[in-house]
Design a protein that fits this description.
Elements (H helix, E strand, L loop, with lengths): L1 H11 L7 H17 L2 H18 L1 H4 L32 H37 L1 H15 L3 H12 L3 H27 L3 H8 L4 H37 L11 H8 L8 H27 L5
Length: about 300
């Protein structure tokens, strides 16, 4: 058994891979080994995987319905064996609402990443590769977005589009792409001077093919790391919009809206706001730790 593991290790770590598949698997294995050495990053990964599990099986894990309470008997009950995180002013179980609220958090995080990262990657690689007036125009537009605080700009977009979780996601995505464009442009300015890019140009490859097939894949690791590190900011921005009543609308169990509902009870019934606040803190910390681990694992200098 140990011999088989050693041979597999030697095959994956070979300095002269015999195929693209072997090279790709070797890079992935080396990256995982670097990531696994960071215990805090592994802890962040466990929490994120736990969040995915909770969101996927929220209906089975939640002990009560998230939107149904009893004002006569379960209003503002403290944490107990029946209600681990207590109940809110509507008599609803806070733990059940947190569990179902994880779906909204993942919905926001995934959609913002899917929308913002490609925009930033395209803008940055095109600007860095073409240069000239195209670079100047795209980067000045990026600078305009970077000049405003993300939450303030998101508030402006949501105010124009109207409150709601979909509009909040769109607003956050429209304010999140500029840092990715900056990173992709910086990477592209270095990559475009490489010899293999000149060789691809000599064989007649089009500009779009060079950008899509040869430059974007090399910029992708840096963008992925930045997206992972930005997840905490995305969660906080979504929670801020929900706190101000511009994100997910009641009775959806969005964590920021739950904190807003519990702020008037923060002195006497502290658990109403403490539960969602703790959830935001733990998940944001987990994404930051995961991003730090990915940054070390994907660092090409290591």
């Amino acid at each position: 058994m140990s011999t088989a593991k050693e041979s597999l290790h030697d095959w994956l770590m070979s300095e002269r891979p015999g195929s693209r598949r072997q090279a790709a698997l070797g890079r992935a294995y080396a990256g995982w080994r670097g990531f696994a050495r960071n215990r805090l990053a592994l802890g962040g990964l466990v929490i994120v995987l736990g969040l995915l599990f909770v969101a996927a099986f929220a209906n089975q894990l939640a002990p009560y319905h998230p939107n149904v309470g009893d004002l006569t008997s379960t209003r503002l009950l403290p944490p107990s064996s029946a209600h681990w995180f207590g109940t809110d002013d509507q008599g609803r179980d806070i733990l059940s609402r947190l569990i179902h609220g994880s779906r909204i958090t993942l919905f926001v995080v995934v959609l913002v990443a899917v929308l913002a990262a490609p925009i930033g990657l395209i803008v940055g690689t095109v600007a860095g590769y073409r240069g000239g007036w195209i670079d100047a125009v795209l980067m000045r537009v990026t600078d305009i977005f970077l000049a405003f605080p993300r939450l303030i700009l998101a508030l402006a977009f949501v105010a124009a589009l109207g409150p709601g979780i979909e509009n909040a996601v769109l607003a956050i995505a429209l304010t999140s792409w500029p840092p990715y464009a900056r990173i992709a442009r910086a990477e592209t300015l270095t990559i475009r001077q490489a010899d293999y890019i000149a060789a691809v140009q000599l064989v007649g490859a089009s500009h779009s093919r060079i950008v899509l097939r040869h430059i974007m894949p090399l910029c992708l690791p840096s963008v992925i790391v930045r997206v992972t590190l930005d997840m905490a900011g995305i969660i906080l921005t979504a929670a801020g919009l929900g706190f101000l009543g511009l994100g997910a609308q009641p009775p959806l169990p969005e964590w920021g809206a739950m904190i807003a509902a519990g702020r008037q009870y923060v002195l006497d019934q502290w658990w109403v706001a403490a539960g969602p606040g703790l959830a935001i803190f733990v998940v944001s910390l987990a994404f930051n730790l995961l991003g730090d681990g990915l940054r070390d694992a994907l660092d090409p200098k290591k």
